[in-house]
Amino acid sequence: MTTSEAPPRAGAASYLEDHGRFSGIFGWIFSTDHKRIGILYLVSTLFFFFVGMSLGFLMRLQMLSPHGELFKNADYYNALFTLHGVIMIFLFIIPAVPGSLGNFFMPIMIGAKDVAFPRLNLLSWWLYVTGAVIALASLFGSGLPDTGWTFYAPYSLRTHADIPMAVFGVFVLGFSSILTGINFITTMHRMRAPGMGWFKMPLFPWALYATSWVQVLATPVLGITMLLIFVERIFHVGIFNPAMGGDPLLYQHLFWMYSHPAVYIMILPAMGLISEMIPTFAHRTIFGYGAIVWSSMGIALLGSLVWAHHMFTSGLSDAAATVFSLLTFLVAVPSAIKVFNWTATLYKGSIALEPPMLYALSFIFLFSVGGLTGLILGALALNVMLHDTYFVVAHFHYVIFGGAAFAFFGALHYWLPKMFGRMYNRSAAYIGWALLFTGFNLLYFTMFVLGVMGMPRRYAFYLPRFQTPQVIATVGSWIMIAGILVVFTNLIVSVFKGEKAGDNPWGGVTLEWQIPSPPPTENFLEPPTIPEKAYDFEGAFAS
Amino acid sequence: MSDVAAEAGRAEHAHEEHRDYEGAKLGMWLFLLSECMLFGGLFVLYAMYRADHPRAFSAGGSHMDAILGVANTLVLLTGSFAVASSITALQRGRRKLAMGLVGTTILTGVAFMIVKAVEWSGHIRQGYFPHSHLLQGKPGEQLFFSLYYVMTGLHGLHVIAGIAVLTAALILMARGKVTQEHFVFLENAALYWHLVDIIWIFLLPLFYLAA
Ligand code: HEM
Ligand SMILES: [Cu+2]
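^ thats the input. predicted complex w/ copper (II) ion below
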C-alpha cells in the first residue's frame, strides 16, 4: 500500500503540506483537521510543560538550604508551587495525551477520516488557549496566587491573590475538556470504519473512550465548584464560608469528586499508550485484550467513588473513612490487572529495546511504585502520619510524571516517525532517557524518604536535619531536567532534520501503520483493511 | 492543485459530518448529561445544608411566592410544548408554523426571565440577600438564600443560553439551513430547552415549596 500507486485526488497531500483554506500560521490555528489540531495541542501542552518544569526547577533550588537558597519570603515559594501545580495539571497533563496523540491517532486507529465534530474540536483548542490566558492573567492581579492548585476554601476566599480570575480560567479549561470528551465518545460510536467492531478497536482508543466518559461526567463538578468560588469571591454568598454558616469541607468534597477521577483522566490515556507500545516491541499479541478493556471501564467507574481519601485527616467520620479506604484499595485491582497483562505480553515475546519500549518498561516500574505507595497512603493509620508530607508529593509525581508523562514521552518517540515521517537519533534518545530515569528516581525517591522523616509539603523553609536529602533531591532534579532537555532537543531537531522513517518502522499492526508517513489529509486513500483482531501479529507475519 | 484537492476534500468532509443525525443527537445527549452533573454539584450542596438546617430552610421557603413559582413553571412548560410541536410541524413541512412555535418558546423564555427579575428585586428590596441585615446571625436562612440566588441564577443563565440557541434555530430555519429533511439542529435546541425546563421543575419544590 504505497502512496505512489494512488492517483492524485482530494486530500491525498500530506496533512503537513495541505494547509486548507488559510495559509501560514492561520492554516494551523483555524484548521479543523484532527491531525493539525493534535499538533496544536502537542505544541501548546509541551510549551506549558516547559514552563512548569522551570518553576519546579526553581522550587528545588530554593530547597538547597534550610533558610531558602533563593528567597527569604515564603510568598514566592507559595506562588511557585501554585503555578507549577495549576500548569502541570490543567495545562499539561490533562489535555496533553487526549488533545495531542488522541486527536491525531484515535480517528486513524479506528479507520475514520476525522472526529465526529471537527469544528467543535477546534473550538476545544481555542477554549484551552483562552482558559490558559485567563488563568495566567491572574498573575498580574492583586497578588501572587498562593492557594496551591487545589484552591481550598476558606483560604481561597480570603487571600489577596486574584482567585476569581484563576478559577474562571480553570472553568474554561474544564469546558474545553468536556467538549473533547463528547467529541471522542461520539467519534468512537459513529465513525468506526466498516468492520471495525468495538472489540477490534485498539486499546488506545478504548482507553480514550473510558477517559472521555470521566471527562464528560466529572469535569462539570469541577466547573460548578470553581464557579462557586468565583461567585463567593464576587458576591460573598457564604456557601463555603464558615463565618456565614457555610462548610469548607463541602468544598473539599466537591473538589475531589472531580479531582480524583481527574487522575484517571491523566493516567488512563497513558495506559492506552503503553498497551500500544508493548505489543509492537514484544512482537506479540497483547495478553488479555478483554481484561484491559474492562479494567479501563472499571477504573473509570471505581475511580469516581474514592474521592474522600484525600480528606482522611479533615474530620471525616470513621465510618466514611473506612469505606473510602476500602474502595481505594479496590480501585488498585483493575490497575494491577493491566500491569499483569502487560508483563504477560512480554513473556516469550521477541523484545526490541527501542527507546519507546524503554519508556513503556519504565512506566510499568514507576507506575507500580506510584500505585503501591498510593495504597500506603490509602491505609487510614499511615495516612494520618504521611498526609501533606513529601511522601504525597513523591507518590503523585511517580504516578503522573513517572506514569502518565513517561508514557507520553515514550509515545512521542513511537509515533514521531508517523506524525512527521522522520526518525530521531537513537543514541540521543537512549542518553536522554537514561538521564531522565536516573534523575527522576533520585529526585522523587528521596522525597519519599523525606516524607517519612516528616518533611511537610508546600513549605519554603525546613529544619536543618533535612538538608542532606534535600540537596540529593535537588541534584536529582538537575540530572532529570538535563535528560528532558536532551530528549526534546533530539525530538525537535528530528522533526526538521531527522532521517526519513518509512511508513512502518516498528512493524506495527494497528491501522495508523497502513498509511503513509506523514498521513494524508484524508487519512485513508483506500478503505483500510481491518485486521481479524487487534494486534494480530501472527496474521501480519503470515501475509 | 493540492489546494483545489484539499478544498474538495474538505467540502466532501463537511457534507458527511452534517449528515450524521445519530451522531449529532448523541453529542447533544452527552452534553446534557454533563449539564446535569453541573447542577448535580449544587443539588448535593442543597441536600447537605438542608439536612443541617431543616427549620431555617422552611423559614426561608416561607419568603418565596409560590404563586409566581408555579406560574413560571407553567410558562416554561408552555414553551417546551411549543418547541416540541415545532419539530413535528417542521417535519410535516409547515415551516411558517414551526417558526411561529419556536418564536413562542422564545417569548416564554423572556417572560420567565422577567418574572424572575421581579422576584429577585422583590427579595432584595425586602432585605434578603447575602450579608444583608435581616440574615445576620441566621446561618441557615443565609445559606438558603445564597443557594436560591446561585441555583436560580445559574438556571437563569441557562434560560438565556436556551433563548440564544432557539434564536439561532429560528434564523437557520428562515435561511433554509434547518429544513424538513435536516432538522437536527432544531431537535437539539429543543432538547436543551427541555433540560432547562426539567431543572426548573426540580428547583420549584426545593425553594418555593420548602416552607
Ligand atoms: C519537571 C520537573 C518537575 C519538578 C522539578 C517538580 C517539582 C515539584 C516540587 C518541588 C513540588 C512542590 C513540593 C512542595 O513543596 O509541596 C511539586 C509539586 C507539584 N507537582 Fe511537580 N515537579 C515536576 C514535574 C511535574 C509534573 C510533570 C507534574 C504533573 C504532570 C507535576 C505536578 C505537581 C503538582 C500537582 C504539585 C502540587 C502543587 C501543590 O502543592 O499545589 N510536577 N513539584
Ligand atoms: Cu485520589
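The radius of gyration of chain A is 23 Å.
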